[in-house]
Amino acid sequence: MLSGGYARMTIADLARTAGVSAQTVYNSVGGKAEVVRAVYDVMLAGDEEPVPMSSRPEFRAVLEAPDVPGWAAAYAAVARMIQQRVGPLLGVLLAHGPAGDPVLEELVATIDAQRRIGNEEALQGLAQRGLLPSRPARHRLVDAVWVLTAPEVFDRLVRRSGWSATAYERWLAAQLRAAVTPP
Question: Among 5, 33, 56, 183, which one is most buried in terms of CB atoms within 10 A?
Answer without folding.
Answer: 33
